[in-house]
Design a protein that fits this description.
The chain is mainly alpha-helical and 213 residues long. It has ten helices and no strands. It is found in: Cytoplasm; Cell membrane.
Amino acid sequence: MTASTPIHRAPDTPSARQALALAGVFQAASLVDELARTGQTDQRAWETLIRATLDTNPDSFEAIYGGHPNNLRRGLEVLEGVVGRQQVNPVVLRYGFLMLMLMNKLRTNDAMMDDLGTHLTRIQGQAEHFGETHENVIASLGEAYQETLSTLKARIVVQGDPSLLQSRMMPERVRAILLAGIRFALLWHQQGGRRWKLVFQRGALKKSLDQLG
């Protein structure tokens, strides 16, 4: 982390932490959609998600997303649309809620959790050698997703430009971001997030989003 991005303490409430974690899920959903349609995506949003996936033992909650809510700005904007009942890209919404569903299946599957942990430990060593966003690391993250979450019956089918989706490194990039979304979904659950709260505690979530600016 550079001196130009100091730690920005999040409001220390369960709903604020849930909002930030859920923003990570929807940021991943938004990036997957953008990659699949255009082949490009926002670098800051991308790097935030990849680093969060690799950091399995962060020093603080804020450290997970790089210390400043603006690193999750894309996801926060999607979440604000959901909470405010505004028009939100239905494909992005579908990806986000499918990630939450896959997370629920993963967290009750001890063998898969262990397998994913083994993958990530090995990939962390790669990241130290090559750099966190090197294509070897991205390829390994994609492989980890493919060998674990992709084996579940419920799967995320990504829509987009077929030629882009089949281009070099694109499947790996998409899977790496899907894995990042699952990582934030697990974080959301750990912070007390539940699907029913998105319906019945919408007001608390909106208040937290307003505080995050």
